[in-house]
Amino acid sequence: MRECPTHGDLLAAYALGALEPDEAAAMRRHIETCAICSEQLPSMRSLPGLLDTVDMADVPPPEPPAWLEESLLDQIARETPRDGGRRERTRRRVLAGALAAAAAIAVAALVIVLSGEDEQAYARASLGGPSGARAYARLESVPAGTRVSLKAHELAGAPGNRYELWCIAVDGRWVSGGSFRAPGGEAEVVLTAAVGAGEYHRIVVTPEGTRAPALMRGKLQY
Fold first, then answer.
1. d(Cα 174, Cα 44) in Å, to the nearest integer?
2. How many CB atoms lie within 10 A of CB 189?
3. Cα distances (angstroms) measured from residue 205 to each of 59, 109, 136, 157, 214
4. pLDDT digits (tens, 9 = 90+) for 80-136
5. What's the CATH fold of domain 123-219?
6. Tell me, what's the pLDDT at 152?
7. What was the pLDDT predicted at 56?
8. Domain boundaries in the chain?
């Protein structure tokens, strides 16, 4: 992919809103006259949306690319000794662009992985509870019924931190998907429930062995 020789290292940072106001204004003026940047900006604008689709706890902290130090030193070296303010702005610009690019790569990679996993899922669900507990579930068909991959955060309220997953069938039956532990309120488990696609539309998490209180619940998205 072509890169603008003068502003290419700032395009990702501009799309993510990581530039200072004066730099962002200058970048807008540049994009109006640069065919390369104006062509690439629409794809860069999807980066904030990608950030909203994933749990940032799953994304490792972005590390600047290996070329960052060399590029940074090279650009600073071209500044005159008296241009201290300009040298600092150059350092911040290069660093912002590199970190934005690294973050975009990390998020895009995670979205690709999640998309590949979801190809095997017949439904998904986002769960939430009054205490702030939340979870994401993927559901796949298996010979025994449905495999539920559940990732939960901030669960509380169960003795011994033991919980039970329930699938609520369309006829009102509660079908247990099994129990699990969540030390510190966190869990990443795989459970199996004897239900098939279309037989239920909600899943609920409660303390083990009881149907109340409902700590989290969510509606399936087929």
1. 46
2. 17
3. 26, 30, 12, 11, 6
4. 555 555 555 655 555 555 555 555 555 555 554 444 445 678 999 999 988 889 999
5. Immunoglobulin-like (2.60.40)
6. 93
7. 45
8. 8-118, 123-219
39, two tokens: 């062509």
Identify the residue whose tokens are 């459970």.
191
User: How big is the chain, counted in residues?
Assistant: 222
Spans in the chain with pLDDT lower than 70: 1-2, 45-119
Q: Which residues of 77-106 are buried (b: 16+ CB within 10 A; e: fewer)?
A: eebeeeeeeebeebeebbbbbbbbbbbbeb
For residue 76, which amino acid is it? I
Can you tell me which residue has the tokens 């991959």? Answer: 149
Strand partners, 187: 152
